[in-house]
Each structure stands twice: as structure tokens, then as C-alpha cells.
Amino acid sequence: MFGHQGKILHVDIGTGKSWTEDLPEEWRRLYVGSRGINAKILWDYCKDPSITWDDPRNIIIFAPGTVTGTTAPASGRTSVTTVGCTTGLYLKSNTGGHWGAELKRAGYDHLVVHGVAEKPVYILIQDDHVEVRDAKDLWGKDILETDALLKKWHGEDSRGLYIGPAGEKLVRAASIQCSLYHAAGRGGGAAVMGKKKLKAISVKGSKPVRVKDPKKFAEIAQEMRELLKADSGAQSLHEFGTSGSIGAVNELHAFPGKNWQTGYTENAHPISGQALNEKGYLKRRVACFGCTIGCHRYSVIEKGPHAGIASGGPEYETFGALGNGPGIIDTEGVLVLNEVCNRLGLDTITAGTVTQWAIESYLRGVLTKEDTDGLELDWGKLDEVKKTVEKIALREGKLGNLLADGLKIATKKVGKDSYKWAIINAKGLEQSNVETRSAKAYALAFAVNPRGNDHLMTETFAEFGASPESIEVIEKVTGDKKWASPHFTEYRAEIVRWHEDCYEITEALGFCVFTSTAAYGVNPDNMARLFAAATGIELSEEEMMLTGRRVCTLEKAFNVTRGATREYDNLPWRLMNEGAASGPLKGEKNSKEELDGMLDRYYELHGWDKETSWPTRETLEMLKLKDVADYLEELGKLP
């Protein structure tokens, strides 16, 4: 087989047994790879709505992309799919680094983990040798310690994927780490691993990843590299990382602060990629497997009370959630908080968002000093924020236990209208730091995201029209470049739908989505051609994008089995009822009326029922998902 290795590896960590399954040829055509095939596997094993995230029947699937392990640029991504613990719904998370390429070289396209171990274990994969091993010497260790032990036991050239203490303690914001640089962070996939008592997966492979037409493949890969090199956004990503845009976003009054009560900070420069460079904290730029951009950072504090702290990042989202959000406008302060999260295995977005909610709740008198374990919470207090984050990761004290379950549960426990300043939507995932009140395509994309309201299922950055390439994308999608502005509601559904499909095939192939939805050197046309050169399967650009639509609909259907309706497709109460604090769009909201209009058009474009948001039989059968339609009909969830 070409492109794919042709094997799905199954490991039951309860019994210690492993087996392989041939990758069906039909799945390659219908779902392309990685995220797409993961969605199919999860549906087949876990569509029964009685299977919850902590049920032994829940599985967790790891899959590098179709072209991961080849010379395709920026193709080192791995999708992780399971029933999520934060929302109880479909969860896809994604990580970079080198682990995925190593799994491909071991001979596998997908790793499916079943069952629950009686005691902590880790999985060792060395080509055809697969073993479930005792992890008693790893359990309780942080990410640094775990990585060091796995490399000591299995070689410096082995690649590890692991959870930290947060995952072991079933914190719903726990992240799956692939080194200190990379994380499948959102949605609590590490808590699923923790529930299964799966500490780590160590992989070493030696098998080649072959492509069908090496000459053609090399030509298209080089075309992609040249396009990325010429892209106006790629150089900034290399120079300053994702946080290089913070200054510009702040000037737009779209940089959320103090739990989304402000959108502008007088001097946000200290929490930017530029400051990281200028102050000498940045020690090197880090690239994932095959990447020509290198947007990741490695930062070190060399002197002062925090000397010796070193970690990957911080990214834009971390500077937002743990910097501007709680009022820590200090480069070194955010570096300290970022290192705590990376070392203990905690998603920085959720960690910062729940901390901001706690601060505001304390200042409102909704949380007492007893509730906060004696901490006097307020904006700008680094020590208190650090202690709060550590409490969350370790489930320590009343405050740690409350916040470790996320805001969906915390607001129900606390009551007192605390949901009104909790930045979550009906699904329950804490929102990433995009000001959707001034970016309408993002607002729609966040609302319909099957895993909850964040940017990492559909990145509609092009709506800002910030580069010639992004304006071209908007013109292609809408027919007119005038719609390349985030303040319109017109054509937002078309923009979101296009980006959904593009994002899905990007991940299915294993590309970083920065290359197709933030920079634009990778696009549906050259992805379709590269897929054909890699696998020998000819799909037109339109057919390739249809596979994206198929997967998005399957992900939606999975949530429908668990009770998702149109009411789940919304935005946080604060953003829908309180206006933006400042700037040219002061007072702007994500109103229900505005969102409903965009949702109606979005469902129409998808062929989903407007009243329920459920996919229709006609649409499901057109997408070759008749079995999905039949099952939804059995459940009484087919419109």
C-alpha cells in the first residue's frame, strides 16, 4: 500500500493483547486518513450513547496523517479522537512533533486503545513488537521526568506521547503531551488516558513510508514549500510564532482581558512574540516533523528568582489565557505559568479561562475565601494565579477540585448566575481567545464546532483579509473580495463551510492547518494532487472537499446520538448578552438573532434540518453514510 501503511493497530490494555486490522480501501477513498478514518472508527465502536468518556468501552484513537512520514512539508500532525470528558461529546484533538511520523515508520496508520488497565501501564511499540508494560515507575511523574525515563529505557531516538499528573487525576483540562513543545491539549483527552491508567506510548519505527509516484510527489511537495516560503504570513510565524499577532489584535480591541470584560490592554507588548525575542527569553525556534516554518518557541529564564525555568512556547493562546486574561502583563510571569502547565500536562487555554472565572467570582463575592483555600484572588496577582493553576492540575483543595472539572460543572455547583461570566457555550468547552463579537465567521465556526467553542476545528482567519492570499480565499469562496472583513454576517456560512472541509482534509493528510488556513501554501487543489501521487487514488479537488463534508457530518451525527440539538450551537452568555468593551465595535454582541440567521444558512448549505440541526437522510445517503442514517432513525433522531 502507498501513502498509508495499511494497518490499524489495536491494543487492549486490560488484557495486554494486541492485533492488527487491514485498512479498508473504501475508507481511504471516503475519509482520506487520520481525522477522517478516526471519526469512522469512533462511530463504529462508540456510537451507542450509553458509552460515556469514562466507560471502559470508550476507545481513544491516535493517527498520523496520510502523508506523515514523507517529505511533504509541515506534515507531522497526529489526530487524537475519543468520547471527550469536558463535553461528553465527540472529541478530536491534534498534536504536532515527531511522534506521528514514528508511528507511521513502525508500520501503522492508526492506534486504537481499548479497555482499562488494573494498574498503570504504558504501551511500547517497536515495529512489529507491541507490548503493554507496567508503568509503576512512571505514574506520578511529570512530563519532563516521564520523557527522560522513556528515553533512558528505549533510546534517545524513541518518541514518547504521555500524560502528566493532571491526566492521572482526571482533570478535564488535562493535555496529552508529545514533548514540552507539542500537545493535544483541548477537551481533556489525557483524562481519558488517565481513566484507562495509560501513562504513555513509546514508539520507535524503521519502516519506510512509500508513495505511489515519487517523482510527482516530490514535485508537488516542492510546489507547496515554495508557496509557503512566499506566503506573507509564514515569515511572521517563523520569526515571532503565533504570538507575533498580539499587538495587531490588541489594537483592534479584540484581545480578551479580565475574563472577556476588556478587549484592549494599554501596553500588551510584554506578552507578545516580539517581546519574547527582544528580552532574550527565546533560545531557539522549533519545527514539527517536515516543517519549513518552525513556529514553535523554546524559551528559558536564565536569571532572577525564576532562573532555570524552560519550556516550549508560549503561544498566542497562552499569552492570552494566562497573561492578558488574568492580568499578568509580564513576559516572565507567563513563562512561569506556561511551564507549570506543560510540566504537569494541562491545557493552557482552559487553565487560564477557569482561573479568570474564579477571580471574577471571588471579586463578585460568589466564591468566598474558604472556597479559594485562603487565596485572595484578583487581577494581576502572579503568585495567586500560579497557585490556582497548580491546584487545578493536582486537584488540590476545594478550589482545585472545583475548577478541575471545568466550568460546565463548576457553574452548576456554584450557581448564583455564575454561568453568565463563564466563557463556555452549551457544549461546555472553555472558549479560546478569539473575540467573536467582532469576528462573525469565527462566531459561527465556534458555535457549530462539534467539540465546543474554539478555533481548532475550523480556522476562518481569512475573513480578516489580512493578506493578499486570504483575500483570494474569500473571493474564491464568496465570489467577491469585499466580503474579506470580519464585521459582515453575509457569506459567513459559506466561509465557515469551506474552511471546515479544507481544515478536515488538511488534518486527514497530516498537514499543519497553519499551512492551509492561516498561511495558504497548502490548498485543496495541491492536496488532492499530492494525495493521488502518494496513494494512487485519484480524487478531484471537489471530491477531496466532499470527504471533508462527509467527516464533518459524521462528527455532527455522533453528537446527535448524545442529545445535541440546535440549542447546542451557541456562544457564551457574556458574548451574546454583553457588548464589546471598547474600540470601533464597542457594544457589539453575538446576538441570538444574528447567530440564528447565520445558523439557518449554515444548516441549509450542509443539508441539515434547520429546526433540530440534525442531518437528513437525503444528505447522509448522498454522503454514503446510509448506516449512520439508519442508526439515527433507530434512536428517533432523524428529521
What is the structure about, briefly put?
With 639 residues, the protein is α+β, with helices and mostly antiparallel strands. The chain contains 26 helices and 15 strands. The strands form four sheets. It has a six-stranded mixed sheet, with helices on both faces. The chain has a four-stranded mixed sheet with strand order 8-7-12-9.
Essential attributes:
639 residues; alpha+beta; Aldehyde Ferredoxin Oxidoreductase,  A, domain 1; Aldehyde Ferredoxin Oxidoreductase Protein, subunit A, domain 2; Aldehyde Ferredoxin Oxidoreductase Protein, subunit A, domain 3; six-stranded mixed beta sheet; four-stranded mixed beta sheet; 15 strands; globular
Tally of strands: 15
- Specify the biggest β-sheet: 6 strands, mixed
Poorly predicted tracts of residues = none
CATH architecture of the largest domain: Orthogonal Bundle
Structural class by secondary-structure content: alpha+beta
Please list the strands of the largest sheet in the order they lie side by side: 2-1-6-3-4-5
User: Whole-number radius of gyration?
Assistant: 23 Å
Q: How many domains is the backbone divided into?
A: 3
Mean of pLDDT:
96
CATH superfamily of the largest domain: Aldehyde Ferredoxin Oxidoreductase Protein, subunit A, domain 3
The third-level CATH topology of the largest domain is Aldehyde Ferredoxin Oxidoreductase Protein, subunit A, domain 3
Shape estimate: globular
- Could you estimate the helical fraction of the residues in percent? 40-55%
CATH C-level category of the largest domain: Mainly Alpha
Query: Span from first to last CA?
Result: 40 Å
Q: Strand share of the residues? A: 5-15%
Number of helices: 26
